[in-house]
Design goal:
Order of helices and strands: HEHEHEHEHEHEHEHEHHEHH
Distance between the termini: 4 Å
CATH architecture of the largest domain: 3-Layer(aba) Sandwich
Number of strands: 9
Shape: globular
Helix content: 40-55%
Oligomer: single chain
């Protein structure tokens, strides 16, 4: 049985299999030929962090596959009253066919997966957001980018930056990460990605200057500077991230056909200007839509791997 906790746990061939299945199901859905590939099965969705895209895409996606999705906030189950994660895992894992968890510490996901008898999907943790990156790469593929792409990440060295690094190091494309000083990617994840890159041929570069990262890039990606749980750091972060906003001037340094990706929600006027967001809205909302399709690919693949 396989879990989907981080892209670091997958080979390039496996990720491409998932994306191929996702693309096929998207085509079938658009042609009104969708099939309930997981009919009669169930998906427990545990939310310790709130969400728009994760909630809607997993719930609708599970329904399109013929599954019964069950929404569980931490307030709805005994986790909210102190039940150990491993006990919750042993109970829920015996009752459902698959589990998606959106949480804080990545270790909570790992503990749940260790005790669950059903496959577990990471809907977001403090370290990684792999389901989002599958949608991002699916979007890149649809817009003409593949493992020859040059991608620039502008912003925090957060879970999204970690996940972009894992994706690049597995797929073999060039990734340039630009973060303010003091907000770099954690050394343990950078070193792990470099080890993967040695095998895949990926090129990983790290800057404290967004201009250096963006020059000539075909894909530019960013995320909020203040994530959930960091609200008390708002004023400091706004000061520290000055100069890292994706503006039309910064984007003009990228390839003239460059696309912009943002996992959403966007804080317009902070990590991205309203003008830039609206000018790139097509790729951003295609990316959001592809959460639905990429996650169906993940669920179908995991079910077959049991």
């Amino acid at each position: 049985m396989r879990h989907f906790l981080s892209l670091k746990d997958y080979e390039k061939s496996e990720l491409l299999e998932i994306l191929s299945a996702a693309a096929e199901m998207k085509r079938d859905l658009k042609a009104d030929k969708a099939k309930p590939k997981l009919k009669g099965k169930s998906l427990a969705m545990i939310f310790e962090k709130s969400s728009t895209r994760t909630r809607v895409s997993f719930e609708i996606g599970a329904g399109q596959l013929g599954m019964r999705p069950i929404f569980l906030s931490s307030r709805d189950i005994q986790l909210g009253r102190g039940e150990p994660m491993k006990d919750t895992a042993r109970v829920i894992g015996r009752m459902v066919d698959m589990v998606m968890i959106r949480t804080y510490a990545h270790e909570r996901l790992e503990e749940f997966a260790a005790y669950s008898s059903a496959p577990v999907i990471n809907g977001l943790s403090d370290d990684f957001h792999p389901a989002q990156l599958m949608a991002d790469y699916m979007t890149m593929q649809e817009l003409g980018y593949d493992d020859r792409a040059v991608v620039a990440w502008i912003g925090d060295g957060n879970n999204m930056a970690n996940s972009w690094m894992m994706l690049a190091s597995k797929m073999g494309f060039e990734l340039r990460v630009a973060t303010p000083k003091g907000y770099e990617i954690a050394p343990k994840w950078a070193e792990l990605a470099k080890n993967f890159a040695d095998k895949s041929g990926a090129k990983l570069y790290f800057y404290n200057d967004p201009i250096e990262a963006v020059k000539g890039a075909g894909v530019v990606a960013t995320d909020v500077w203040i994530s959930m749980g960091q609200e008390s750091e708002r004023e400091k972060r706004l000061k520290d991230f000055a100069g890292f906003s994706v503006t039309s001037e910064l984007l003009s340094l990228a390839d003239r056909k460059a696309i912009l990706l943002h996992c959403l929600p966007a804080h317009r006027g902070e990590e991205i200007t309203d003008e830039t967001f609206e000018s790139c809205a097509e790729s951003i909302f295609l990316e959001a839509e592809n959460r639905l399709h990429a996650q169906k690919g993940i669920m179908v693949w995991l079910d077959a791997a049991k």
